[in-house]
Amino acid sequence: MRRKRIQVLFIFLAGTFLLSCSTSSERKVIFQGEIHGSEVSRLTLYELGVKESHALHTQVLKKNGRFQIETESKEAGFYYLETDNHDYMVLIGAPGERISIEAESWSLSQSAVVSGSPETGLLQTYRKAYYENLNKLADLNRILIHRRMEEDYAEIHDSIAVALNALFLRQQQLAEDFIRLHPGSLAALLVVNDKFGKQQLFNDAEHQDLFILIDEGLQENYPGNMHTLEHHERVNGLISKVSRGNAISVGQPSPVFCLPSNDGVEKCLNDFSGKVVLIDFWASWCMSCRKANPVRKTLYEKYNRHG
């Protein structure tokens, strides 16, 4: 009987151990591969959180340039590999993925071939066209610098400015097409926040529909993910901000509010319904407000008969 209990206990412990190993393996994200060239000797893996990034592991490359870095995570997220010469590439990893990277040391981001991560595969597809346009941008900027002393530089500058704007619009359209094709991907979340050169491709005021589209897609594909929650909070703030702005935009009825008059009697805006009302909030210490007094006087003389 005792022997049977020991056997049962052993089986239970063995099962618990195997379950623990299985769970640990399922949480692992493995980054492995080979970096060709002598410019790189060390890699550091970072995780990109919602507010900041933090280093996870640093590894010295083997003589043949191979590496393998493992980490554990409960959800899909953003990572980047940085070399000791400060080059880097962004990756998207999920628990259970074994991501293989083969790249040249002169530029990880532009030369890398990645497999094992569908999300990173999407990002790499977009990045290929992105870097082609980014290199064209660099070429145009070099022309501006090299020809700045020429007599016709003003004409050259204007011509290149037109080309730069066209290139930006082309990249913006490529990015928008990608987002609309993959709205529920984490890659789309990176793209919508991307820059082209020093200029942001999208801003939430003008491209609200794209931010909302990604929010809806991420809610479906990655519910509860920290990046989904952060983006959802941002979109809610954007919608609230736009709603407040629309409430006081030109052509919209003014919000009703009440304030005490000079004699201490509270007056509300709807007390003057049907009349022209001049609303101006200012302070006696505000110099620009005081300088605007002549304008207010002109408006008063023009509309006081209707108020």
Brief summary of the model shown:
The chain is an alpha+beta fold and 307 residues long. It has 9 helices and 12 strands.
Query: Low-confidence segments, ≥5 residues, pLDDT <50?
Result: 17-22
Largest sheet: 4 strands, mixed
- Overall number of structural domains: 2
| Average pLDDT metric | 86
Classify the helix fraction into a percent range.
40-55%
**Total number of strands:** 12
SSE topology string: HEEEEEEEHEHHHEEHHEEHH
How would you describe what is shown here?
- Helix 3 packs parallel to helix 5, helix 4 (about 155-180) packs antiparallel against helix 5 (about 185-190) and helix 5 (about 185-190) packs antiparallel against helix 6 (about 210-220).
- With about 300 residues, the protein is α+β, with helices and mostly antiparallel strands.
- Mean pLDDT is about 85; it is low at about 15-20.
- The longest helix has 29 residues, at about 120-145.
- It folds into 2 domains: about 25-115, Sandwich (Immunoglobulin-like), CATH 2.60.40.180; about 120-245, no CATH class.
- The termini are far apart.
- The strands form 4 sheets. It has a 4-stranded mixed sheet with strand order 4-1-7-8. A 4-stranded antiparallel sheet has the order 3-2-5-6.
- Helices cover about 50% and strands about 20% of the residues.
- The protein has helices at about 1-25, 110, 120-145, 155-180, 185-190, 210-220, 225-245, 285-290, 295-305; strands at about 30-35, 40-50, 55-60, 65-70, 75-85, 90-95, 100-105, 115, 195, 200, 260, 265-270.
- The chain is built from 9 helices and 12 strands.
- It is elongated.
